[in-house]
From TrEMBL:
Region listing for Disordered, in residue ranges: 29-68
Compartments, as annotated in UniProt: Plastid, Chloroplast thylakoid membrane
Native source organism of the sequence: Fagus sylvatica (Beechnut)
Coiled-coil features, chain-numbered ranges: none
PANTHER family cross-referenced by the UniProt entry: NAD(P)H-QUINONE OXIDOREDUCTASE SUBUNIT M, CHLOROPLASTIC (PTHR36900)
Record keyword Transmembrane helix present: no
UniProt name for this protein: NAD(P)H-quinone oxidoreductase subunit M, chloroplastic
Native organism taxonomy: Eukaryota, Viridiplantae, Streptophyta, Embryophyta, Tracheophyta
Bias-annotated ranges (Basic and acidic residues): 47-63
InterPro entries linked: NdhM
Record-level GO cellular component terms: chloroplast thylakoid membrane
Catalytic activity: a plastoquinone + NADH + (n+1) H(+)(in) = a plastoquinol + NAD(+) + n H(+)(out); a plastoquinone + NADPH + (n+1) H(+)(in) = a plastoquinol + NADP(+) + n H(+)(out)
Quaternary state and interactors: Part of the chloroplast NDH complex, composed of a mixture of chloroplast and nucleus encoded subunits. Component of the NDH subcomplex A, at least composed of ndhH, ndhI, ndhJ, ndhK, ndhL, ndhM, ndhN and ndhO.
Pfam family, one: NdhM
Residue stretches of biased makeup (Low complexity): 35-46
Length: 212
């Protein structure tokens, strides 16, 4: 499959940078502990270490399985709308060769852009169809995208934050290519091999097998 696909995720990014709000500095309260409390803490420390180890094991299992996808519910009668005037009415996006991220709801059928829904990020994967994708590899990219969105929770909603996410996804796509999970689409309109020349595998008879 070499068709363009997309995925939408809800965000919890900070909007203070857009509305001119100032972040309140939290006061740092001094922390002290008595000798008795310290002894009790030392007794509880082995139990806490054990709990932390169990949590690390659980996180490692979840990492291997990938972040669960939480796609946005489909909407009907979506109309293209610009950002409101208080946000400048401008685009908020990050565009690279294989990853396009927009702070908007984009109808996957009609391609209508509703940029007033800034709590949603839409990822358009490989718009030039340079690689061959299947549902498994697409979901791997979407899962990593969801993981990055969760990781940047609370970060300011700016083009810089979106570029950080887009750059990480580009590196992840390169990894998928080098691991042989995706390959170049030899039927693409333009063959420029943006992530390096393809590797040709040879069988025992010296005949080429496939291009990655």
């Amino acid at each position: 499959m070499a068709a363009i696909s997309s995925y939408m995720a809800c965000t919890k990014f900070s909007m203070s940078g857009w509305i001119g709000g100032k972040r309140e500095m939290r006061k740092r309260n001094p922390f002290s502990i008595s000798a008795q409390q310290q002894q009790a803490a030392e007794v509880q420390e082995p139990q806490e270490v054990k709990v932390q180890e169990e949590q690390e094991v659980q996180k490692e299992k979840m990492k291997q399985q990938g972040t669960p996808l939480r796609p946005v519910e489909p909407q009907v009668n979506v109309k293209s709308k610009n950002m409101s005037r208080e946000y400048g009415g401008q685009w908020l996006s990050s565009v690279t060769r294989h990853v396009r991220i927009y702070a908007a709801y984009i109808d996957p059928v009609t391609c209508e852009f509703d940029q007033t829904q800034m709590d949603k990020l839409t990822l358009i994967l490989d718009p030039t169809e340079e690689f061959v994708w299947n549902s498994e590899t697409c979901n791997k990219v979407y899962s990593y995208f969801q993981e990055l969105v969760d990781h940047y929770e609370g970060a300011p909603l700016t083009e810089y934050t979106l570029r950080l996410i887009g750059s990480d996804i580009e590196h992840y796509i390169r990894k998928l290519l080098f691991d042989g999970e995706i390959k170049y689409n030899m039927n693409a309109r333009v063959l420029n091999f943006s992530m390096g020349k393809p590797r040709v595998l040879f069988n025992h008879d010296g005949q080429p097998q496939d291009v990655q």
